[in-house]
Amino acid sequence: MTQWSDVSTRATSRLPNPVAAPEFYDGVAVKRGVAWIVDTIVITLLTILAGVLTLTIGFFLWPLFFLGIGFLYRIATIAGGSATWGMRLMGVELRGHDGERFDLAQSIAHVGGYYASVVTVVPWFLSIATIAATPRRQSLTDFVLGSAAINRPG
């Protein structure tokens, strides 16, 4: 039987305890990586579609379109189910410090933190390292928000 954390690294966290319920975090680091690749492919396809629909203006403004579409895609999918399409495919979802699914405000904060982390190489690699090395597989943004990606329950 799995149990949610009553003893954790943060006194107020209601996330599953990685010692008492390790199944919530098993394979999450790899699943997050694969989900990121899937999401990047989806965002690329949506950006190509936007380029066609804007009669090629989107191709001339590729970086801006890619960033904007990616930002909206991530917020919409995370707010709508606490996971991007890639995360859903991999059976992973984000949970807040309270153990609940993300709402719109948390989604915006998480995506904003993600974009802040990937702007330069050092925070991006630090985020990858923390996902690989911490018991809850938390990125830098997850540490700041007190959130974590877990295997989807049930």
Provide key terms for this protein.
single chain, mainly alpha, 154 residues, elongated
Structural class: mainly alpha
Number of β-strand runs: 2
Order of helices and strands: HHHHEHHHE
Helix-residue proportion:
55-70%
Number of domains: 1
Order the strands across the largest sheet as they lie in space: 1-2
Round the Cα radius of gyration to an integer and report it. Answer: 16 Å
Overall spatial form: elongated
For the terminal residues, how far apart are their CA atoms? 12 Å
What percent strand? 5-15%
Rounded mean pLDDT is 92
Main beta sheet: 2 strands, antiparallel
Number of helices: 7
- Uncertain spans: 1-11
3D architecture notes:
With 154 residues, the protein is mainly alpha-helical. It has one domain (28-151). The protein is 58% helix and 5% strand. It has a two-stranded antiparallel ribbon with strand order 1-2. Helix 3 packs antiparallel against helix 5 (104-118). Mean pLDDT is 92; it is low at 1-11.
Helices and strands in order, then pairings?
Layout: H1 28-53, H2 57-60, H3 62-81, H4 85-90, E1 92-95, H5 104-118, H6 121-133, H7 140-145, E2 148-151
Antiparallel strand pairs: 1-2
Concise structural overview:
By secondary structure, the protein is mainly alpha-helical. The chain is built from seven helices and two strands. The longest helix is centred in the first third of the chain and has 26 residues.
